[in-house]
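Exercise 3.2. Students should predict the tertiary structure of the chain below and write it as structure tokens, then compare their answer with the key that follows.

Predict this chain's 3D structure.
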Amino acid sequence: PNVVQNMSSTQMKESSMSSQGEGTEGPYIPQEIYLYVPSLSEEDINMLNEPLPSDMVPRFAGFADTWDPYEATYMDVPVYWHIPKTGGSTLKDIIADCHFKVVANEEGIADGHDQDMDLQLVDVGGHGRAKYVNVDTTTIEGIDRAVQLGLVRSNLADVIVTPYLYESELLFKNGGEDPREGDPRGRLFALFRHPVDRAISMFNYLKYADWEPTYDERIRDMTLKEYAQSDMIE
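Answer key:
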């Protein structure tokens, strides 16, 4: 690596104080900055520019290419890929409670609706006029049930929410076959967050979220460093 500037923190502070004048009060403002520039060989750069082998590129035939223009005749269904701790709960509430779109997610199986034999729209307490489909697309079992009941073909859901990118593609396949021309496909969208911020947020959440399947009481007494070094971090 190339280090453009190398000064100790003491030297940086002395440099700052001398530039402000002896005895000057005020916030410490460093006058020098460390800049780390990684060195990449020409071979490294060429390797990074090489396209991935075709067998390493996921093939999502059930999802529309984001570059493809939306065709209303296809009846493509928005699929929100929910990455935890990225603002997804707020987004789901906005979609259902503010825009009154029918949503397929975990809300729809409240009050025993996971035992229903056919698809229907349900009201959920605390969500006002919002409507949900009685399937849970946030679990593997729920996705399997949604496939069996024909969620996509029913055209009931305005938006499907799921954390499972690969498994949810099966919702748009007919018996495992790729969609045919004119069949509905998924239109993926997502919210992202800096991975370190997200990991810290997840740590703080899992300290008390004992209703979550991923809850582990060991996290409750962990420090952030211990959590980061454990096998429980994503």
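Discussion points: The first strand starts at residue 2 and ends at 3. The chain has eight helices and eight strands.
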